[in-house]
Amino acid sequence: MKLSFLQMSMAEGDSLATEPVEKTLSIWELVSSGGPGGIAIMSVLFILSVIAVYIFVERWGAIKRANQMEGNFMEGIRSNVLAGNLDAARNLCSSEDTPAARMISKGISRIGKPLKDINAAIENTGKLEVSSLETNLPTLATISGAAPMIGFLGTVIGMILAFHEMAAAGGQINIEMLAEGIYTAMSTTVAGLAVGILAYLGYNILVSRVNKTIYNMELRATEFLDLLNEPA
């Protein structure tokens, strides 16, 4: 009986000794635990994430403003052009800070010239407006592709650090010696993928909204050209 009691006590002692201790990491500890290499990679990814967020917010507002046009805008243009009051039509375009209004204003300034010239002037203005709408979108696309690669660079650096520690330790390998390299590898990979995925989603959302704006611009331009083709 005494022997069994001692065995039970030893088993309970072993279970208490091997019970895992839960440890939580703060964001700063997660960033800094990878050593200088990990901090450098994470700093680059942080800067890229700030740039990506700035581009998305700034472009979202610009594209939203580009689509804000009064519902009776084309009706006002139509009535003024048919009445021969071109100055009023240009003033109406100036009151609307949108790409479509600037295209119509360019077309009004060419009234009296061949329809081909008017169409070319509207088309050239439209190209400039589309280029303005797509400002910084290539940068956002670059971040969506570069961020995961930078994260993988951190992975490679972390694995190199881990293998260097293993080589330096010879036959006495301690898991704590490998922790810095493994942290660098894992944390930079996750951060790079997170920044890349968010930038990719933001890029596709903005491209979708730009395409919708281009469709509205083409619709307004067609309405204006149809107006000029109407019999007097």
Automatic annotation (TrEMBL):
Family: Belongs to the exbB/tolQ family.
UniProt membrane topology term: Multi-pass membrane protein
Keywords: Cell membrane, Membrane, Protein transport, Transmembrane, Transmembrane helix, Transport
GO cellular component, one term: plasma membrane
InterPro entries: ExbB/TolQ_transport, MotA_ExbB_proton_chnl
Subcellular location: Cell membrane; Membrane
Membrane-spanning parts: 37-57, 137-162, 182-203
Full protein name: MotA/TolQ/ExbB proton channel family protein
